Amino acid sequence: MKIHNQDIESHNAPRIAKHQRAFQYIRSEVPEVEAVIERLQQFQIAIPSWALGTGGTRFGRFSGKGEPGTLEQKIEDVGLLHALNQSSGAISLHIPWDNVDDATKVKELASSLGLSFDAVNSNTFQDQDAQELSYKFGSLHHVDPAVRKQAVQHNIDVINRGIELGSKSLTVWLADGSSFPGQLNFREAFQNTLSSLQEIYAHLPEDWKLFVEYKAFEPFFYSMTIGDWGQSLLLANKLGPKAYTLVDLGHHLPNANIEQIVSLLLMEGKLGGFHFNDSKYSDDDLTAGSIKPYQLFLIFNELIDGLDHLGWDHATGLGWMIDASHNMKDPLVDLLQSVEAIQIAYAQALLVNRSALKQAQAKNDVVGAQEILQDAFRTDVRPIVAEARLRSGAALQPVRMFNDLEIRKRLIEERGENTVATGL
Amino acid sequence: MKIHNQDIESHNAPRIAKHQRAFQYIRSEVPEVEAVIERLQQFQIAIPSWALGTGGTRFGRFSGKGEPGTLEQKIEDVGLLHALNQSSGAISLHIPWDNVDDATKVKELASSLGLSFDAVNSNTFQDQDAQELSYKFGSLHHVDPAVRKQAVQHNIDVINRGIELGSKSLTVWLADGSSFPGQLNFREAFQNTLSSLQEIYAHLPEDWKLFVEYKAFEPFFYSMTIGDWGQSLLLANKLGPKAYTLVDLGHHLPNANIEQIVSLLLMEGKLGGFHFNDSKYSDDDLTAGSIKPYQLFLIFNELIDGLDHLGWDHATGLGWMIDASHNMKDPLVDLLQSVEAIQIAYAQALLVNRSALKQAQAKNDVVGAQEILQDAFRTDVRPIVAEARLRSGAALQPVRMFNDLEIRKRLIEERGENTVATGL
Amino acid sequence: MKIHNQDIESHNAPRIAKHQRAFQYIRSEVPEVEAVIERLQQFQIAIPSWALGTGGTRFGRFSGKGEPGTLEQKIEDVGLLHALNQSSGAISLHIPWDNVDDATKVKELASSLGLSFDAVNSNTFQDQDAQELSYKFGSLHHVDPAVRKQAVQHNIDVINRGIELGSKSLTVWLADGSSFPGQLNFREAFQNTLSSLQEIYAHLPEDWKLFVEYKAFEPFFYSMTIGDWGQSLLLANKLGPKAYTLVDLGHHLPNANIEQIVSLLLMEGKLGGFHFNDSKYSDDDLTAGSIKPYQLFLIFNELIDGLDHLGWDHATGLGWMIDASHNMKDPLVDLLQSVEAIQIAYAQALLVNRSALKQAQAKNDVVGAQEILQDAFRTDVRPIVAEARLRSGAALQPVRMFNDLEIRKRLIEERGENTVATGL
Amino acid sequence: MKIHNQDIESHNAPRIAKHQRAFQYIRSEVPEVEAVIERLQQFQIAIPSWALGTGGTRFGRFSGKGEPGTLEQKIEDVGLLHALNQSSGAISLHIPWDNVDDATKVKELASSLGLSFDAVNSNTFQDQDAQELSYKFGSLHHVDPAVRKQAVQHNIDVINRGIELGSKSLTVWLADGSSFPGQLNFREAFQNTLSSLQEIYAHLPEDWKLFVEYKAFEPFFYSMTIGDWGQSLLLANKLGPKAYTLVDLGHHLPNANIEQIVSLLLMEGKLGGFHFNDSKYSDDDLTAGSIKPYQLFLIFNELIDGLDHLGWDHATGLGWMIDASHNMKDPLVDLLQSVEAIQIAYAQALLVNRSALKQAQAKNDVVGAQEILQDAFRTDVRPIVAEARLRSGAALQPVRMFNDLEIRKRLIEERGENTVATGL
Fold it and tell me: What span, in angstroms and rounded, lies between the C-alpha atoms of D125 and D138?
């Protein structure tokens, strides 16, 4: 199915008066609204192809219906999201979950829906049918050079696939680690990982980036070979200027101050981008902003401060992506909620009175600094985000429109009940 | 395959002299060794049927070979373990992962291997093929009475199956919870769970126990309806004298003092038993004692103190079970390691000089109390545990014997490479 | 110093037009505003006497100036807060930090400022000069009955002091625990605590409540004798109908779902009240709502749901108190910020569309339930809170007024630079 | 008081036969015992001067008696420890807690007791009486250059003091951080810290080291400016070859894999040394090995692996120090227990069969690798540690000898009951 301009207009028309009232009010109170809207309109959050189907845990997976069974259908799904919010204009593929048989055709389809291809992702944490050697004991860090070689080659293949599609970055996430003390020599595992990444790096086109993701823990692990930002940054620095650290919000030990990590990575010029999601206990991959919205705001607060310092050119190179799992909700609705929550946090952070904040900090006015941040966070910015959507030709209320159009029902009619998306 | 007495003897013979030397030494140093050996010989740890195959995470599962494909083969596997260590004389089934077509035949097989049937486990955290209603949004706590009824009925079926096999307890573990704030009314979820459990409880034979397991968190959850020992105890108290709390060592928030929980549950007469495993970060289901052996010792220290207080009769009713997942190691070897680690912790705790400890506590002699515990823990009790095995007709070194006999190789020859055990 | 009505009016006058504009807007959008305002006006948050001076850590304490050096000055401080926000109409005393020589005079002073006396707090976690036996190894749980007796008597003294002042509840927080495995017999420590509390309970007037506070951990502790809500509830149930559990938001293990605990305690009719504060890592005693404002909202969401169920009469018996420490900020300003954040969370929770939420829950509409909560939380309720203050005769912007009036400067002039408040 | 050789001999004589029996047994089982003893005899653990008195929390401090009131008495205390165990041959001073009026005399005293001076420690987390500017809002990271300058100068003074005493390293631990979001610009705080450290580094003698300590959190903090090993390493790398990271075992987020951090820091040649202690929940500063002895063993396991790789020359430059707090126990006894636990972990780690471990790792023999580590850890190495003491002229059982000699009683007689050590 496709969403047409007149669908958007039909959705917006009965809501426009109420929206205008709200927007007029906020514009009268917050003069800098126009600058915020401009930033919001430019801001695109990539949708990972593997988030379009129902996720699961090791215990159960309760599949939805009408899931995209092919890459074309996944692109179509992202196209629907983008039509609804004009903020999801990129898709991030996962190889080999996504088979790209005809890159030209795939690119044309994406392009027709206004989509570009974000970072490509390799997968060396699962064994594939045709695969010679197993990743049971890791991939890039493996003690056996033959396994490392196979994993390196897979990453090179993914880069090549990405080049065909117009991607500009490779994200490497590894489940390499160990389950028991003694299993692994940490130093050699690190060195093996580094040398594998160096081989991959050598195949990276000049204008590409390599995102090195870290993760504190996985169920059943005792150690992770790229476990925290310190290790990722160490690798990125040893690799060279095209290597960066990627921050997934769910990949930290309890209570970690993620916003400080973001600030320091930006300071070092080594922040590659984000995997947005939220979590209560561990890597829960919940909807962005659904558990700790103030933390999401604080992260954007650091991003803006860092970009003000580094120059906003830097922002265009950052990878902004959702990486959530959808076990309970319709994946498409969940993604709309995540994008909205991210935009809200971004808009709030853009409203922070930065010169006042700097002054408060300069005199250790702790009360004042806190009030400045809270003032921005407590502001109801939803009309600003809606206005940005309106101006970009999107729906005032994307979730509502999704429901009203009965999009899932129509997808089920098109695709059938039992299609299953590849991925998590 | 089967392990015969002469296999055990062939394994032990070349090792007996070294063992005797070690045992003589420890016996000369620790006079209470005989009492410890007696307790160890009586101590049987149940093996869960679902732990006999390779586990996995939501990302990957790297299957082993020669896994038990049928219930009979699972019983045979536990029989092998028991032959090796004479301490795994019970099996715990999971319905419907384990189909019991002919209970009499199954009982005869188990009995021929010296095995009894421990707690039966229900499963309402996955949907089964023939099932009418889904557990996507929970089971015993579900808002829809029809789903609750189905889940209750399943538990009653499991009890009935257990009666046929000679089990004396039902373990209920639920993945009931919520992923997002607002999704669930906590109070109503608790009340629904209580009323469902009351219906199950009503079907419990007079000499049965109901074990209510709790778990602090699962990946992708925001709340668990039976999340901690407080909630489980509340339910157990409301249910009645046959209901108990079951402690899985991996089901706690970070840094929880599990030994204190064990002590208080014993005090209340409501400790049902254990699921033994170990963990570094979350519910990692690693080999017992592989990460925090001192914690395991401290738990046994509380158990012994509590049983001394309550009377050791109480111990026979406790459920002692391993609940680990085996992703990296051969499941059978892993289980042998877990049993050994549990026995070591138990033996160390039995060596604690309790009258001296009580005296130290009575005068707040913190140094002394610590030294008494450390003295027991630092003692090398392996010869004592080996002696207990020797006297029971088991192998001095079960893991070694497993390897030397090439048991897995022989199981693969019998069963083939591609058998997959049902379960996790 | 004293704040007079005309001070309030002078502060409000230049701000009233802007406020009216904001309030008109929100009233036009949210019809239930009047009911919310009524609840807010009734809502009083007690100020602990020990929070009026600068706190510290074990490393350093950086004193402020003009701190209240006497109980009269502490009452005067709370009077200032109450004059500014008309929501801090109670003070909670800590004995023996607060010496009450002449209860009648003290009551008159408080009454003249519109203040009543909330829960009285005992202190058996520090040794006092005149004290015979030490609490080094605990108080109510102590192995030595003489120490327990001394601690019980202190609590009885505190009750008697509270009766003179018109308090209606006693809060017991213990630093009783242990630092090393073996130091304590958990069971006996619990039983000693119970029997001590029973003696205290026996002295409780008919219309009083006993609040049993729990705490997961303290620096340098290995176990806490009242460590979680499960233990506190066990004690409260054994004590009787006047005993309740008190929830301090900072007293939990990492990632605990506090809102669920609140819901269950209300369900059991055993929620006594709150110590409000916020934290990033442990018991940080930071300003309420400064780190996890969404969690604070979710707690109020459960409170309202529970009170709707139990009846709002129950609310009047709940203890609402701030328990923060003020190391960096002026304590009075910090308390104003905490009260404001609590009121905001309360107002947001009152805006939740409860019938829609129940419907969404009834059909497992996870998206809808989340949107309903987020809709309330994302609403800018500050004009509603300000309107409630305005109608009660308080300042539109209490923090601003505190600064503009240079209240601290005037207190320093009155009291001198080097006064130090008793307490933390 | 002083412990003489004949005191040691009187203590050892009645115990020697039992010890010999135990040692003969272990020597017969473990052939590499002699090499282990040699390493143990060389291994000296520095005692911090601030650990010789009773510590406290922000709530209470329960002082002991006979505490060292002067630097001379502190040195005397360490001399007693060293006489008892011959493994505490260094003291680490904290300026200005320790006033060094006459360095020559102090050195002579230390030398007469066989003690050298380990790292000197600066203190910019408390305000001192004579100090011009306050560290309330931090020191080396402070927004005000004048405060930074004062803190830098203090560190330079400490270096100068250390030079006089023969120290070779400066440890910098900062309580610099923030309590509330917004209070601090993370990037500028880092840059200020770096530039302050650079000034200090410039004053470092050629043969000195600068240890940059990190800490994840403090009570009442929201961020720490040197919060994890990643930040410390970043600073150390920017500073130069004399700067290293110092690992305090209690300074991590929950569940951190400290042994992996140790391994990577050694790999980078940037591990400076340790502050040994143990913890259950946060920075509890408990006796080393009292809570997680297996973790302590795993850390030593990584150290030995790293030193085998780097060369053991590197070990002589590592700072080995206890940093615990003694609230419940006699500080001297507690320190003896810590040293013993550290030596036990070291001895166990030295027993690990490294060539077998490497082979197991090379073929992903997870079971085998685990068994190799557990085999070493489960060995009762206490006779080996005692033998090392015996050969060095120390007591077979230092804690027992401390008690039997009634050392504290004699110190109280000498010093009086009410002496209080400076420090925590």
Answer: 7
Look at C254 and A254 and tell me if their CB atoms are within 8 Å.
Answer: yes
Q: What is the ipTM, given to two decimal places?
A: 0.97
What one-character-per-residue DSSP string does B237-296 give?
Answer: HHH-TTEEEEEETT-S-TT--HHHHHHHHHHTT-EEEEEE-B-SSSS--BPTTSS-HHHH
Measured from the Cβ of residue A339, the count of other Cβ atoms closer than 10 Å reads 26
Among the partner-chain residues A57, A125, A221, the one whose CB lies closest to the CB of B284 is A221
Structure confidence at residue A423 (pLDDT): 61
| Contact between C361 and B184 using a beta-carbon 8 Å cutoff | yes
Of A69, A73, A88, A63, which is closest to residue A1 (Cα–Cα)? A73
Q: Write out the two tokens for A223.
A: 């150690």
Q: Which residue range(s) make up the domain with A251?
A: 44-331
Whole-structure pTM value:
0.97
And the tokens for B285?
């289901």
Q: Do A234 and D263 touch (CB under 8 A)?
A: no
Structure confidence at residue D48 as a pLDDT band (50, 70, 90): very high
Instruction: State the residue for tokens 């309106």.
Output: A390
Instruction: Test B328 with A218 for CB contact under 8 angstroms.
Output: no
CB–CB contact C182 B305 (8 Å): no
C: neighbours with 3+ CB pairs under 8 Å?
Answer: A, B, D
- Distance, CA of D279 to CA of D300 (rounded, Å): 17
* Contact call for residues D327 and D62 (beta carbons, < 8 A): yes
Question: Which one, of D7, D48, D33, lies nearest residue D383 by Cα?
Answer: D33
pLDDT (average), residues A149-160: 98
**Would residue B338 count as lying in a domain?**
no
Which residue of chain C comes nearest to A291, CA vs CA?
C294
Label residue D118 exposed, middle or buried (CB < 10 Å: 0-12, 13-18, 19+). buried
Q: How far is D264 from chain A (nearest CA, A)?
A: 6
Closest CA in chain A for residue B288: A180
Strands A223-224 and A271-276: unpaired
- Beta strands per DSSP E along D294-363: 319-322
Nearest CA in chain D to C324: D220
Angle between helices D229-239 and D258-267 (to 10 degrees): 20
Question: CA distances (Å), B43 to each of B315, B318, B341, in order?
Answer: 10, 11, 13
In a domain, C3, yes or no: no
Q: pLDDT value at position B421?
A: 73
Q: In this predicted model, what pLDDT tens digit does every residue of B95-110 receive, in sequence order?
A: 888 888 899 999 999 9
Residues of B within 8 A of A55 (CB-CB) are: 58, 220
Rounded Cα–Cα distance for residues D290 and D341 (Å): 8
Question: Which of B127-131, D192-196, D284-288 comes out lowest in average pLDDT?
Answer: B127-131
C96-131 pLDDT tens trace: 888 888 999 999 999 999 999 999 999 999 998 889
Give the count of domains, chain C: 1
Residue among C134, C220, C327 whose CB faces D284 most closely = C220
Question: Rounded to a whole number, what is the distance in Å from the CA of D220 to chain C's nearest CA?
Answer: 4
Q: Cβ of B134 and A62 within 8 Å? A: yes
**Is residue B344 one of the residues assigned to a domain?**
no
Question: Are A186 and D259 inside 8 Å of each other by CB?
Answer: yes
Interface of D with B (CB under 8 A): 21-22, 25, 28-29, 254-255, 257, 280-281, 287, 290-294, 328-330, 333-334, 337, 341, 344, 366-367, 370-371, 374, 377-380, 382, 399
Question: Which CATH number is C180's domain given?
Answer: 3.20.20.150
Residue B244 to chain C, least CA–CA distance (Å): 15
| pLDDT classification of D212: cutoffs 50, 70, 90 | very high
Residue C2 lies in a domain: no
Q: How far is the C-alpha of B170 from the C-alpha of B120, rounded, in Å? A: 5
> What pLDDT was estimated at residue B422?
66
